[in-house]
Write a structure and sequence with these properties.
The chain is mainly α and 60 residues long. The protein has a domain of 40 residues. It contains 3 helices and no strands. The longest helix has 13 residues.
């Protein structure tokens, strides 16, 4: 059965994108959040990717 990406309802700070990514890849959500914050500091692409994922991905 194929995995499907969902925004997390239980592990969320804003929209649940980082929690959903962490669940999808089975890694710690703190690491995903740290990488997301680092990507925001190194360019606006991190913000754009986060917002697009928040808008198009379904909530679990």
């Amino acid at each position: 059965m194929a995995k499907k990406f969902y925004r997390s309802k239980s592990d969320r700070k804003l929209f649940g994108v980082c929690g959903g990514v962490a669940q999808y890849f089975d890694i710690d959500s703190t690491l995903v959040r740290a990488l997301a914050i680092a990507s925001i500091f190194f360019g606006a692409l991190g913000i754009v990717v986060y917002l697009v994922l928040a808008l198009i991905s379904p909530s679990k």
